Amino acid sequence: MFLLGYDPVEGKHKVLYLSTRDSEQPQVLTLGAQESWITIPKGRSPSHGASIGIDWGRIYPTRCVNDFIYYETYYGDGGGKSRLVSFDVRYEKFNSIKHLFITRVLIG
């Protein structure tokens, strides 16, 4: 899955790549730069994919607000739990928010 974000401080658009394979780490590409995809180190990314049961096929509406990409995903046995994940476009770091209520307010 590819998600587009914008960093207003640096004036850069970035593409976040999230794989459905647990063995692959998230990657970021800065558009307009002569750079290649950068793998986000494990310390800056949450556990992804099969290791915690996230169903990447069920990532729902995304929003880029200021310099954060927000998306909702499901995890756990049968995908019964919801999680809101934010990605800081400028610093290329993830944060996980476990409360469904917040997800519904931010994502709609």
TrEMBL record:
InterPro entries: F-box-assoc_dom_typ3 (IPR013187), F-box-assoc_interact_dom (IPR017451). Residues 3-99 form the F-box associated beta-propeller type domain. Coiled coil: none annotated. This is F-box protein. It comes from Cardamine amara subsp. amara.
